[in-house]
């Protein structure tokens, strides 16, 4: 029997020996969810110029020297009015009314908020005066040029997943295209004579194909492009035909037909082509196959997951997702209730993180309980060597609620 770590390493080695790192340049606006293939630097200072953090008055802080509790105020004449979008001006003397985001005039080094000298929203006109009442620190209410990031600085590092904040930062830097990892094309094949396409009438003895949809969705969320097909048969000839009809892909993932039954279509078809089939010490997800075959003229890695819908998804989480997208967020949380686990196997249970930060199991260990999985937001990892855990004992928990 193979350990989870051994099978993870075998899958990693298989994929590493077939995939070259592939990069493409995409428009920033179309890069949501993509993963950066290289560091991206900002070509400009962020912000690009010193600007006001408040609606107020741009002043020289030195003009407030000596002001304090005891002293009377000091009058400054308003010599200008600067709105956001105006060019950078010079503060000759006195003070200039300035709006949030407007460029600080040369010669000024601080901003006094409008409410500190009068009523909010009521600005002194050019030629009028304002009264400073307190000492002003140089730099007060100024957002200095480059204070978020200096030009040439690394804005985002390779491997960063691009979400709203990352895309916004790229846009703020004026970066219009970014290098991202190319999406691997993954052919997903469900197998089994009992399967029916959702939407078709369900004949007695048949079940709907859950795995084509669930594995495709998992692959898409992990950054791949899923191409799903169903081989609703246990005839090796049908699976061979589906593989021969496939276009070029970077990976094939099958589900079903790998255990110890009399009609194991994936094993019967692919073992003669050189794939190896093994029992991994994990529950669910024990029977696994891997290797490479020729698809559309190219040597292509193949991963064979078991057919039970929970086994298929757990197999994806353990063996494929880390390579496509990286590890899930890992927590250690106390169990809400006790559990039992086969001592010789790594057990993966479905769970839900409670409001008081414990984890409660959802459904039993059986691998057909897909509706229970659908109510879960976590996978509870019970290692080999553990046969029982009491309520309150801490376990490793992977958050899967992405
Ligand atoms: P197998 O791995 O082919 O022995 O299948 C194990 C169990 O999973 C059987 O009960 C199958 O009916 C079920 N199963 C296999 N493939 C799927 C699928 N694509 N969707 C839902 N259930 C499946
Ligand atoms: Mg089957």
TrEMBL record:
Its EC number is 2.10.1.1. The keyword Transferase applies. It is an enzyme of class 2 (transferase). Its cofactor is Mg(2+). Pathway: Cofactor biosynthesis; molybdopterin biosynthesis. It catalyses: adenylyl-molybdopterin + molybdate = Mo-molybdopterin + AMP + H(+). The keyword Magnesium applies. SUPFAM superfamilies: MoeA C-terminal domain-like, MoeA N-terminal region -like, Molybdenum cofactor biosynthesis proteins. Residues 187-326 form the MoaB/Mog domain. Keywords: Magnesium, Metal-binding, Molybdenum, Molybdenum cofactor biosynthesis, Transferase. PANTHER family: GEPHYRIN, MOLYBDOPTERIN BIOSYNTHESIS PROTEIN. Belongs to the MoeA family. Catalyzes the insertion of molybdate into adenylated molybdopterin with the concomitant release of AMP. This is Molybdopterin molybdenumtransferase.
């Amino acid at each position: 029997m193979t350990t989870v770590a051994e099978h993870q390493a075998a899958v990693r080695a298989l994929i590493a020996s077939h995939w070259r790192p592939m990069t493409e340049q995409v428009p920033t606006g179309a890069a949501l969810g993509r993963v950066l293939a290289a560091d991206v630097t900002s070509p400009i200072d962020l912000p690009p110029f010193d600007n006001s953090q408040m609606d107020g008055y741009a002043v020289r802080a030195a003009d407030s020297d000596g002001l304090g509790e005891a002293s009377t105020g000091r009058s400054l004449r308003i010599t200008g009015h600067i709105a956001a979008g105006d060019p950078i001006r010079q503060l000759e003397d006195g003070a200039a009314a300035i709006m949030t985001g407007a460029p600080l005039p040369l010669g000024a080094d601080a901003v006094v908020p409008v409410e500190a000298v009068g009523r909010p929203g009521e600005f002194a006109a050019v030629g009028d005066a304002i009264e400073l009442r307190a000492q002003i620190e140089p730099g007060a209410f100024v957002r200095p040029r480059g204070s978020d990031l200096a030009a040439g600085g690394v804005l985002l590092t390779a491997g960063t997943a691009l979400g709203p904040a990352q895309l916004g930062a790229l846009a703020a830097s004026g970066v219009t295209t970014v290098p991202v990892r190319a999406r691997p094309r993954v052919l997903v094949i469900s197998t089994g004579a009992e399967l029916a396409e959702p939407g078709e009438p369900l004949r007695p003895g048949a079940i709907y194909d859950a795995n084509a949809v669930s594995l495709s969705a998992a692959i898409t969320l992990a950054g791949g492009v899923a191409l799903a097909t169903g081989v609703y048969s246990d005839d090796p000839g049908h699976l061979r035909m589906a593989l021969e009809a496939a276009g070029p892909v970077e990976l094939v993932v099958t589900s079903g037909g790998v255990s110890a039954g009399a009609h194991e279509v994936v094993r019967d078809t692919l073992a003669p082509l050189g794939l190896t089939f093994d029992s991994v010490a994990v529950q669910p997800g024990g029977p696994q196959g891997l290797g490479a075959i020729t698809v559309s003229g190219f040597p292509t890695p193949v991963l064979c997951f078991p057919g039970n819908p929970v086994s298929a998804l757990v197999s994806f989480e353990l063996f494929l997702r880390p390579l496509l997208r990286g590890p899930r967020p890992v927590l250690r949380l106390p169990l809400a209730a006790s559990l039992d686990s086969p001592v010789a196997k790594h057990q993966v249970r479905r769970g839900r993180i409670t409001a008081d930060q414990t984890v409660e199991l959802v459904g039993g260990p059986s691998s057909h309980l897909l509706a229970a999985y659908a109510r879960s937001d976590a996978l509870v990892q019970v290692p080999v060597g553990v046969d029982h855990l009491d309520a309150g004992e801490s376990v490793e928990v992977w958050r899967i609620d992405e």
